[in-house]
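Need residues for this backbone.
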């Protein structure tokens, strides 16, 4: 390991850790205000609040890693620039690309850490946090059916409801499909349904069957149809929202809905976001390097300003494209990755410009 690499890493480590802690505190402020009211005025035990915060922490970390990477890059290079150390390094023959290498390695490392955290830890933690919120904090009974989520019984039957009102026991946009020995599953679609326990009464629907080539070979409409479902699927703990699914589970749900003809653009966008969000760590490291190198002599002040400007711009940009993807106005993969690709291009252009500048 080169002395220069160790030096730049040590300079970046402190601001990065400060950034992670600081941004987590900012993100938890609103939640803490809500929790304080529940503890003081509604008698919610403090241990329940602490447990909720603990399980919310992984998702907060994934959100803070990219910004903290940018903050660490900007603050460390800003400090070196302020003290003329960057000038001294470049005078001695160290190129901009050589200076960028250890910081980009940190960006790649944080991308991997963020991906693993987001894939292996965040889904289960979010699922447990949702249960804590409903069961312990808000004292609400667990719903029997979760809307906009596919769930499966032990007999290879899948169920989906676009909208669910547990108060009136009404559902809309019902889809049931059954995996059989045939190549394609039988599907049942219904406009609405009522449910009591394990019995669903479907209304105004159609039954479809397909041949081995995927062509429709049977269709029957109905005004009313009763189906009995297995009690196992009524457990809330077995039903997950999109944020509670890992990459494999989300992909399986997308494939299941696609086979039944449902619109999967929103779920596909969220699937690609599972790759795009961790990639932001590398993107922020890349774009922070050139803009910090030709920063004014204000050093740390410039680093703070740079972090705020790029953070705000990027996340507004990403939110807009995410909505475009979920709404079907852009292909999901482009909606997820366009902000990252745009900032990568800007970062590379700025880095080469700074490298050629004397």
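Answer:
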């Amino acid at each position: 390991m080169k002395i220069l690499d160790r030096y730049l890493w040590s300079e970046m480590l402190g601001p990065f850790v400060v950034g992670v802690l600081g941004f987590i505190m900012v993100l938890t402020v609103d939640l803490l205000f809500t929790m304080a009211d529940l503890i003081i005025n509604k008698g919610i035990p403090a241990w329940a609040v602490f447990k909720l915060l603990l399980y919310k922490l992984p998702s907060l970390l994934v959100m803070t890693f990219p910004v903290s990477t940018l903050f660490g890059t900007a603050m460390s290079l800003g400090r070196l620039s302020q003290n003329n150390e960057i000038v001294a390094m470049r005078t001695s023959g160290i190129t901009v690309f050589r200076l960028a290498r250890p910081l980009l390695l940190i960006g790649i490392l944080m991308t991997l850490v963020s991906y693993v955290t987001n894939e292996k830890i965040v889904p289960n933690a979010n699922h447990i946090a949702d249960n804590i919120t409903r069961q312990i904090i808000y004292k609400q009974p667990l719903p029997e059916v979760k809307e906009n989520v596919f769930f499966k019984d032990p007999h290879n039957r899948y169920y989906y409801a676009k909208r669910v009102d547990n108060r009136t026991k009404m559902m809309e946009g019902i889809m049931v499909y059954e995996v059989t020995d045939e190549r394609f599953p039988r599907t049942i679609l219904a406009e609405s349904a009522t449910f009591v326990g394990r019995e669903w009464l479907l209304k105004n629907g159609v039954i479809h069957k397909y041949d081995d080539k995927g062509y429709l070979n049977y269709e029957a409409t109905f005004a009313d149809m009763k189906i009995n479902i297995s009690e196992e699927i009524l457990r809330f703990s077995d039903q997950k929202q999109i944020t509670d699914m890992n990459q494999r589970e989300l992909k399986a749900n997308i494939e299941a809905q696609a086979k039944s003809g449902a619109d999967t653009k929103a779920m596909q966008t969220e699937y690609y976001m599972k790759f795009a969000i961790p990639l932001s760590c590398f993107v922020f490291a890349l774009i922070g390097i050139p803009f910090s190198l030709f920063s004014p002599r204000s050093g740390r002040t410039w680093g703070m300003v740079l972090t705020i400007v790029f953070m705000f711009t990027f996340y507004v940009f990403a939110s807009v494209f995410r909505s475009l993807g979920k709404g079907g106005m852009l292909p999901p993969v482009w909606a997820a990755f366009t902000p990252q690709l745009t900032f990568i291009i800007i970062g590379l252009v700025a880095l080469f410009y700074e490298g050629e500048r004397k």
